Amino acid sequence: MPHRILVTGGAGYIGSNTTLQLLDAGYEVVVADNLSRGHEAAVPPGLLRVVDMHDTERLFNILQAEQIDAVIHFAAYIAVGESMKLPEVYFYNNVAGSLSLIRAMLRADVKKIVFSSTAAAYGMPSRSPIPESEPSAPINAYGESKVMVERLLDWFDQLHQLRSVRLRYFNASGADPACRAGEDHEPETHLIPLLFRAIETGQPVTLFGDDYPTPDGTCIRDYIHVTDLAQAHISALESLFAGGPSATYNVGTGAGYSVREVLDAVEAVTGRKVPHVIGPRREGDPPALVADSTRLRTELGWAPRHSDLKTIMATAWAWAQRAHK
Ligand SMILES: NC(=O)c1ccc[n+]([C@@H]2O[C@H](COP(=O)([O-])OP(=O)(O)OC[C@H]3O[C@@H](n4cnc5c(N)ncnc54)[C@H](O)[C@@H]3O)[C@@H](O)[C@H]2O)c1
């Protein structure tokens, strides 16, 4: 019997890509999403249950009726800037919503979860590449909401044997290589889609700071292709189904690209100039955020296969063109 997985937030960017990879790998999938930020069309027909994470009763019923074996929990709000304006909204959605899901899981006796965490857990890290041993010290409400859920999961591991793999993603990017799913956030805060939008609209995009202590003065980030990210979730599930322990892993490539390198790559793939202006630094933006993913590679045998900048750009651009048709 194939394992049955509940994917929360599966109408969103990473959740929809992961759903496709799970189906390709032979898993059976049910998606739980309230469509507050996701897209119904991103979910394969028949899989979507429109439900809010705060609805513990409904989640319990779905877990039980659908005979779910494990949960991948993507459902959350994700915009750092917004989280600093509306922290109460972020803690309610991301923390209280996750606790509601966990309560439903305990009641339904579903004891395996893969949780979407973030590099924002590290705040302003003291080194780069960043290993998981770097202390959690978020500097925004979004990052704090994710660390709070990690802490909850520690307690439920200890007290209820709820096994969890927390994946701390760096910058998710790119689209499904077969162009079945891709990035479509509203509000959009991510660099690559913003660069595409600037080309389409002619409205200059602001690059935040070119005086950082990096080779070209712009910030360096670790871009991980969404298909590689999805595969990390499948590796995490396999570990949990094999009886593996709770664990935390960074998901990145270990190689960073600067904002300017990303802009050059967008111009190369589109053959067009990106209208842009240089703005001041954004508060709380570290010069470089690059993952040390040695633990994920060695313990779960994961390796990125699509995360070179050229593949990221080619797939993201194919999706952007298709998405705006
Ligand atoms: N995109 C990135 O670069 C990145 C980096 C690190 C971590 N993450 C984490 O990955 C996860 C997915 O990110 P994404 O980029 O796919 O975001 P997304 O906004 O595209 O998807 C999130 C989905 O969750 C749903 N959702 C939100 N709150 C809900 C609720 N209360 N009940 C039911 N559904 C709800 C939304 O409708 C949406 O479909 C998030 O948890 C995010 O924090 C993303």
Structural summary, described in words:
It is a single chain. By secondary structure, this protein is α/β, with parallel strands linked by helices. The protein has 2 domains: 4-172 and 224-251, NAD(P)-binding Rossmann-like Domain (Rossmann fold, 3-Layer(aba) Sandwich); 191-221 and 254-323, UDP-galactose 4-epimerase, domain 1. Helix content is 40%, strand content 18%. It has 10 helices and 14 strands. It has helices at residues 13-24, 56-65, 80-85, 87-108, 141-160, 191-201, 226-241, 259-270, 294-300, 309-323, and strands at residues 4-8, 28-33, 48-50, 70-73, 112-118, 163-169, 171-173, 205-208, 220-221, 223-225, 247-251, 257-258, 276-279, 288-289. The protein has a 7-stranded parallel sheet, sandwiched between helices. The chain has a 3-stranded mixed sheet with strand order 12-9-14. The longest helix has 22 residues, at 87-108. It is globular, with a radius of gyration of 19 Å. It starts with a strand and ends with a helix. The model has no long low-confidence stretch (mean pLDDT 96). The structure holds nicotinamide-adenine-dinucleotide. Residues 9, 11-15, 33-38, 52-53, 74-78, 93, 97, 116, 118, 169, 171-172, 185 line the site of nicotinamide-adenine-dinucleotide.
CATH fold description of the largest domain: Rossmann fold
Computed CA radius of gyration, to the nearest angstrom: 19 Å
State the distance separating the first and last CA atoms: 40 Å
CATH hierarchy, class of the largest domain: Alpha Beta
CATH architecture of the largest domain: 3-Layer(aba) Sandwich
The DSSP helix count reads 10
Beta-strand content bin: 15-25%
Strand order of the largest sheet: 3-2-1-4-5-6-11
The count of domains is 2
Helix content: 40-55%
Task: Characterize the main sheet.
Answer: 7 strands, parallel
Element string (H = helix, E = strand) = EHEEHEHHEHEEHEEEHEEHEEHH
Provide mean pLDDT, rounded.
Answer: 96
